[in-house]
Design goal:
Length: 327
């Protein structure tokens, strides 16, 4: 497509609609602007909003096979070359309210040299820093640098989340050193978050590596080098994820061992108490029968003597258990 005019990019409910000025800043898309390789236009859409959904389904700027992809169900990260454009699906840490970070946000991007169309449903907080840089004139200057900056922001948030998980594991390890068991379900949730993140970040690292090796016309050598650095950084994060998953397995075994030891100690204590009072239980049962001839039944001091005898008997059994190292 030779020319993309601003009037073709007018969407009333677009989340962002900017034209890069080629110097690191942005301008609002208006009807007079014309997208070019030097000044590409960027549309960021929530595909569930009516005007955005209609534009995706009707605009002539998107190939037919891209429409469904931009508003489809969530899939694992991938990259597809489609003629002069490239379709990329990525995942971001979910920082939205009332959501867990491991419920990853999906962002889909269709890029050409002149146009960037990105879609999502839930907010992608990783873009906030990039938007701030663009508004202050220090952001990306073209399609290639935009993609690099976005991938860098996604990876930064992923690395921060992995570091937070690492700190949580260290805290749990410190607590276990003091015989403190974490709350029920905490380890299961932690392990689930690690596994889910590992599942989606591994193909995302492969996407970054492929983007670094693909000879995309709107990416220069420096941008490919930066993309490979981002892929390597995410790869190191994946190594940390693997180590953390292994550590959670060790922690789970240690927690199980502590719980078993605590149960055994309680069972042992109850057994010792039963043994301690076994002779007194026998005697009280014997003297509780309703038959004549019970010793001391006619003596006013009989009950007191019997209670004193029980105390002496309990003390003797306790001394014997202590001497035998059972207590």
């Amino acid at each position: 497509m030779d020319v993309i005019k601003g009037k073709e990019l007018q969407i009333s409910d677009a989340v962002y609609a900017y034209q890069l000025d080629g110097k690191g800043g942005v301008n609002e898309i208006n009807t007079q602007c014309v997208a070019s390789v030097e000044k590409p236009c960027w549309l960021h859409l929530d595909y569930t909003l009516p005007a955005s959904e209609q534009w995706i389904n009707t605009t002539s700027l998107l190939p037919d096979n891209v429409r469904e992809a931009l508003a489809g169900e969530s899939v694992r990260p991938k990259v597809l070359r489609m003629g002069e454009g490239t379709l990329i699906t990525l995942r971001s840490i979910n920082l939205n309210a009332d959501s867990r970070p491991d419920q990853l946000v999906t962002i889909r991007v269709y890029l050409t040299g002149k146009m960037i169309v990105s879609t999502r449903h839930r907010k992608v907080f990783s873009m906030d820093e990039m938007i701030s840089d663009m508004q202050h004139g220090t952001g990306p200057t073209d399609t290639g640098s935009w993609l690099v900056e976005m991938c860098d922001a996604l990876t930064d948030h992923t690395s921060d989340f992995i570091e937070d998980m690492h700190d949580k594991i260290i805290d749990i390890e410190d607590d276990l050193m003091e015989q403190q068991v974490p709350e029920r379900g905490q380890m299961a949730l932690l392990r689930k978050q690690l596994i889910v993140l590992r599942r989606y970040m591994s193909p995302q690292r492969d996407v970054f590596s492929r983007l670094a090796s693909e000879r995309l016309p709107w990416m220069n050598d420096d941008e490919r080098r930066r993309m490979q650095e981002i892929a390597d950084r995410l790869g190191r994060g994946l190594d940390d994820l693997d180590a953390n998953i292994a550590r959670t397995g060790v922690l789970a075994d240690e927690i199980g061992s502590l719980m078993a030891d605590a149960l055994n100690r309680r069972t042992y204590t109850m057994s010792m108490l039963a043994m301690l009072f076994l002779p007194t239980t026998f005697l009280t049962g014997l003297f509780g029968v309703n038959l004549g001839g019970i010793p001391g039944n006619t003596s006013p001091y009989g009950f007191s003597i019997f209670c004193l005898s029980l105390l002496i008997l309990v003390g003797g059994v306790a001394w014997w258990l202590k001497k035998s190292k059972w207590l």
